[in-house]
Design goal:
There is one protein chain. With 258 residues, the chain is of the alpha/beta class. The protein has a single domain, classed as Rossmann fold (3-Layer(aba) Sandwich). It has 10 helices and 7 strands. The protein has helices at residues 18-29, 41-53, 68-82, 105-115, 117-133, 153-172, 191-194, 207-219, 229-240, 242-252, and strands at 9-13, 33-38, 58-62, 87-90, 136-140, 179-184, 224-226. The protein has a 7-stranded parallel β-sheet, sandwiched between helices. Helix 1 packs across helix 8 and helix 9 crosses helix 10 (242-252). The termini are far apart. NADP nicotinamide-adenine-dinucleotide phosphate (NAP) is lined by residues 13-20, 38-40, 43, 63-66, 91-94, 114, 140, 142-143, 185, 187-188, 190-193. NADP nicotinamide-adenine-dinucleotide phosphate binds next to helix 1 and helix 7.
């Protein structure tokens, strides 16, 4: 199946920078009408200007996805401005690099609250609009789901949980006309990567390349998509025989990490 994005009403979180901004631009190039959500109004304004330079339109929706009222308000306003929602992308996320044995339960809370529960809050608000339009939910998980990496365990738990949410939601929405796409971006050169020095030597891609892969997967009506081929191979190795995956990861660990 193919999905034409021209004229579609698309809302995305994480719209103030990084993969979210690049995805907004890629969607605008397809003719989608956009609303972009994030906390930073300055970051959203930059995205709005960048989309306008592409000849598109994006409405900024300041929103904290860890706050129920803020999410309700932003999603409803976005639907009002766009006249409905055809596609909702959960892109926003935060990271944490910490060895698991040093991570306190409290360290998991903000990461889970943003990466898993932020997407849960947004999706619950967006679903009634998506049902009306037989739309698409896109959940941006991570390659970390199939390629676990040392010191990234807290983040990995949140993305495994998001992937589980996404797969279950897909089944529960069967027959409603609403489709669910789970995306596993590779390592992407954004601000987030600055907080993950353990990944500094691993192969990475640009946010624009990642965004193109996300848009392609939406247009092709996919249920799952990676954004680069190399992690797909190492992910398959992890599944087949985990010690091979561990060995490959050790090749990319910077000095000082075990
Ligand atoms: N970079 C990578 O290597 C990589 C790889 C795989 C998956 N991913 C995933 O891709 C997504 C985007 O990552 P990125 O690399 O573009 O990160 P980024 O540059 O750090 O951007 C993160 C985005 O999330 C938003 N955000 C964070 N907390 C929020 C909150 N409480 N409420 C609303 N918005 C919030 C930020 O906006 P404000 O700060 O303005 O609120 C920002 O727009 C994340 O889910 C990440 O886990 C990234």
């Amino acid at each position: 199946m193919t999905f034409d994005l021209k004229g579609k009403a698309v809302v995305l979180t994480g719209g103030s920078r990084g993969i979210g901004r690049s995805t907004a631009l890629a969607l605008a190039r397809e003719g989608a009408r956009l609303a972009v959500m994030a906390r930073s109004e300055g970051g959203l304004a930059k995205t709005v200007r960048a989309v306008a330079r592409e000849g598109g339109q994006a409405a900024p929706m300041a929103c904290d996805i860890t706050d129920d009222a803020s999410v309700h308000n932003a999603v409803d306003r976005a639907a009002q401005v766009l006249g409905g929602i055809d596609v909702f992308l959960n892109v926003a996320g935060i990271t944490l690099q910490k060895p698991l044995l040093e991570a306190e339960p409290e360290d998991f809370m903000p990461v889970m609250n943003t990466n898993l529960l932020g997407a849960v809050r947004c999706t619950r608000c967006a679903i009634p609009y998506l049902r009306d339009r037989r739309g698409v939910v896109v959940n941006v998980a991570s390659i970390i789901v199939s390629n676990p990496f040392p010191h990234m365990g807290v983040y990995a738990c949140s993305k495994w949980a998001l992937a589980a949410y996404s797969h279950t939601l897909r089944q529960e929405l069967h027959g409603t006309g609403v489709r669910v796409l789970t995306v596993y971006p590779s390592i992407v050169r954004t601000d987030m990567l600055e907080e993950e020095p353990v990944l500094a030597r691993a192969p990475s891609q640009s946010p624009d390349a990642c965004a193109r892969a996300i848009v392609k997967a939406i247009k092709r009506g996919k249920q799952e998509a990676g954004t680069a081929w190399l992690p797909k191979i190492s992910g398959a190795l992890f599944k087949l025989y985990p010690p091979w995956g561990d060995r490959i990861n050790r090749l990319f660990l910077p000095r000082g990490y075990k």
